[in-house]
Structures are given as structure tokens and as C-alpha cells.
């Protein structure tokens, strides 16, 4: 597999760091998850199946678990030994924590100059917000993207997906892989400062027109993505279900309106999103409300239009296409796992379904690092590992 021979030491928690290091494990990297004595918090978060939380199973499969007390000098020394032949270290603490532990990049680099050290935090290692506490929704609020999440009543709503976490995970993954390419040439590692807030802002390229061109805040419901475009909208059907139209390209608009015998409205679809398209939205609202969803899906099946029913996550996950694409995998025929989205032709990734128990690999790791049986037992007895 692509990452065979890469050794990753992961100290991060919750979603962004564990998710991207799991992807590294899926593609062959050896990933050692260093957990506090209380364990990774998501071991106990949410619904459980077959002995583990679903969240933990889908961020920690294929990893080893080392339970380690980093406040004990012996625990810190064990980590240094582990890093001496590792390639990547990932941590997700608030800035300053690793420095107080004596495990910041400068300290690690002295013992392991080859390490690609990735710090993944809310606001990064510099800037006035670096020490501000935040989870995903706060970062979205700070960046301004939460303001886009307004319902038909105009009121802001909780975001449906942890977009800051997601973008942070992918940017960290990309940054680590780029640094590993250079490490292979020079033998030198690097420090990567990933702020999820930065990553979220970097993904607003398709939304910054009013921001950069006119220096104004968005009138959200008049913008293309959030209600201003007639053919990028959600419409109620006769049976109280929902039809989603999701393509504003002119050929899609023309195809729909031609079949509906309303090409008189087509010119309005060529106008910018906003009030000019209101007559089209009004027509679509009334027209789509005349039939149940099943009839609309049949009506749309033979024309070139972007559309879907409004599915639940249950519907989308158990769609046959999800299985066909390998994005729904079954362990022992009944335990579900999310699949691997990066699909190589050569050396494809492979899921190791094994989920580690807390500290399951602590003894084996200590043995590989050269600790004697007596030393290892002492470390266990004195709550170092």
C-alpha cells in the first residue's frame, strides 16, 4: 500500500486528527495512538455497537493503542524513544500544552530530526485567537460561514456537518504528505501549523464575491447557494416530502422548463440569483406542490436535470451505490464501517477492521523499544503505561 513503512504517532483526539491518521492506516501506515489514561474521549461518545462507539470505530480502526502518562518523565522518555524512528507526529492540543510538557517541536526535533510534526488546533499557533477555546460551530461562527446556515425563517441554525473539522483534517493530511515527500529527499522533518479556522476560510473561494468585490456582507437568501437561485433550492411535494433541485446551469433550467411547458420563464433563469428569479421560484413552488415525490422522480428521470429526493443519512448510507463504491463495508457480515474514499488502481488501501482496546499495545510497544520485562512491569504498576 502507498504508505507502507510510514510510522505515525498520533496524540490527537476527537475527530480531525484521528480521522486523517485513520486514513493513513487504511493506506498502510503504522499508526500508534497515544491515549491518556482516561482514554480517547470518543470511546464513550454516542451509540455503541459490538463493544465500541460507532464514532471511535470509524476513526481508530487499524491503529495500535498506547496508554501513556505524559506528565511522568518516564512516560515522556518512552514517547521520545518511540519518535526516534517514526515519520510523523500529530497533536491536537491547545497551543502551549506541548511546550509545557517538554514535547514541543523544538524538543522533539533534538531527538528525532526526521519527524514531520503536525499541530492541529482551532486557531493555530500564532494570532490573537490562538488560546481561544473552540469547537467546530464556534470556528464556523468566527469565520462567518455559520451565517450562511439560515432557514426559511431567516434565523441561523446549527450546522449539519463539522466543516471546520473536516477541512482541517484534509489540510493536515495533505500537509503531512507533502512534508513526507521532502523528508524522503532530505532526511529532515518539518513543523506544520494547521488551524481549522484557517482551513475553513480557505474553502470560501466560491462564496467571497460580495466579500472581496463589494466589501459587503451576504444577503444570504438572495445568494445562489442559499436560496436565491430558482434551480438551486428545496421544494415541498404534495405528500409533504421534499424535492431538491441542485443545478443552475442553463441547460438544466431549459430542460426542466421545456418539459413543464414554461419556457417563457427561461430568460429569468439567465439573470443573477436574487429577486429577478423570484417568479421562477414561485412557479416551481406551486408546480412541485401538485404531485407526490414518487411522481416527480419519475417525471425527472428522462431529462438532464440535477435533482434528488431529500434523503436521510440512513437512506444515503444504505443506498446500493454506497456498497458498489466500497463506502459501506461490513465486518463479520454485520458491523458497519465507512469505506475508503481515496481509490488507487495500484496498491489500493485496505481496511483493518480491528479496533484497539485502551492500552492494548502498550506492552508490545515497550518491548520493541528495548524495555525489559521488569522495567515494563514497573511502568504498569506505577501508572506510566
Indicate the mean pLDDT.
Answer: 96
Distance between the termini: 31 Å
**Which CATH class of the largest domain applies here?**
Alpha Beta
Give the total of domains. Answer: 2
Radius of gyration: 25 Å
CATH architecture of the largest domain: 3-Layer(aba) Sandwich
Q: Might you state the CATH topology name of the largest domain?
A: Rossmann fold
Structural class designation: alpha/beta
Strand tally = 13
For this structure, what is the CATH homologous superfamily of the largest domain?
Crotonobetainyl-coa:carnitine coa-transferase, domain 1
Strand content: 5-15%
In N-to-C order, the SSE pattern is: EHEEEHEHEHHEHHEHHEEHHHHEHHEEHH
User: Per the principal axes of the C-alpha atoms, what is the gross shape?
Assistant: elongated
> Are there runs of 5+ residues with pLDDT below 50, and where?
none
Helical element count? Answer: 17
Sequence of strands across the biggest β-sheet = 5-2-1-6-7-8
Largest sheet, if any? 6 strands, parallel
**Helical amount:** 25-40%
Amino acid at each position: 500500500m502507498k504508505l507502507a513503512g510510514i510510522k505515525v504517532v498520533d496524540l490527537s483526539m476527537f475527530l480531525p486528527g484521528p480521522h486523517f491518521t485513520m486514513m493513513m492506516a487504511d493506506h498502510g501506515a503504522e499508526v500508534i495512538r497515544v491515549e491518556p489514561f482516561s482514554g480517547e474521549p470518543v470511546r464513550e461518545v454516542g451509540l455503541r455497537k459490538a463493544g465500541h462507539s460507532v464514532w471511535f470505530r470509524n476513526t481508530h480502526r487499524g491503529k495500535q493503542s498506547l496508554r501513556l502518562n505524559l506528565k511522568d518523565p518516564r512516560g515522556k522518555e518512552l514517547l521520545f524513544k518511540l519518535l526516534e524512528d517514526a515519520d510523523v507526529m500529530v497533536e491536537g492540543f491547545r497551543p502551549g500544552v506541548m511546550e509545557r510538557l517538554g514535547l514541543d517541536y523544538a524538543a522533539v526535533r533534538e531527538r528525532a530530526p526526521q519527524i514531520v510534526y503536525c499541530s492541529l488546533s482551532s486557531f493555530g499557533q500564532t494570532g490573537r485567537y490562538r488560546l481561544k477555546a473552540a469547537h467546530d460551530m464556534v470556528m464556523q461562527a468566527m469565520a462567518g460561514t455559520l451565517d450562511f446556515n439560515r432557514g426559511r425563517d431567516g434565523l441561523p441554525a446549527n450546522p449539519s456537518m463539522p466543516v471546520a473539522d473536516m477541512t482541517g483534517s484534509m489540510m493536515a493530511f495533505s500537509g503531512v504528505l507533502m512534508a513526507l515527500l521532502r523528508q524522503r529527499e532530505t532526511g529532515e522533518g518539518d513543523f506544520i501549523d494547521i488551524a481549522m479556522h484557517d482551513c475553513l476560510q480557505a474553502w470560501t473561494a466560491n462564496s467571497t464575491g460580495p466579500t472581496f468585490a463589494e466589501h459587503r456582507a451576504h444577503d444570504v437568501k438572495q445568494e445562489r447557494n442559499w436560496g436565491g437561485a430558482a434551480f438551486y433550492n428545496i421544494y415541498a411535494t404534495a405528500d409533504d416530502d421534499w424535492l431538491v433541485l441542485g443545478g443552475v446551469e442553463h441547460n438544466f433550467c431549459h430542460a426542466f422548463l421545456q418539459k413543464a411547458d414554461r419556457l417563457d420563464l427561461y430568460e429569468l433563469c439567465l439573470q443573477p440569483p436574487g429577486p429577478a428569479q423570484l417568479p421562477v421560484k414561485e412557479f416551481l413552488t406551486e408546480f412541485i406542490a401538485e404531485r407526490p415525490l414518487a411522481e416527480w422522480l419519475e417525471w425527472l428521470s428522462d431529462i438532464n436535470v440535477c435533482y434528488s429526493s431529500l434523503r436521510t443519512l440512513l437512506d444515503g448510507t444504505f443506498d446500493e451505490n454506497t456498497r458498489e463504491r466500497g463506502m459501506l463495508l461490513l465486518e463479520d457480515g454485520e458491523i458497519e464501517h465507512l469505506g475508503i474514499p481515496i481509490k488507487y488502481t495500484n496498491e489500493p488501501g485496505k481496511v483493518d477492521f480491528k479496533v484497539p482496546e485502551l492500552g492494548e499495545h502498550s506492552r508490545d510497544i515497550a518491548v520493541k523499544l528495548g524495555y525489559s520485562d521488569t522495567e515494563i512491569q514497573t511502568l504498569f504498576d506505577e501508572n506510566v503505561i
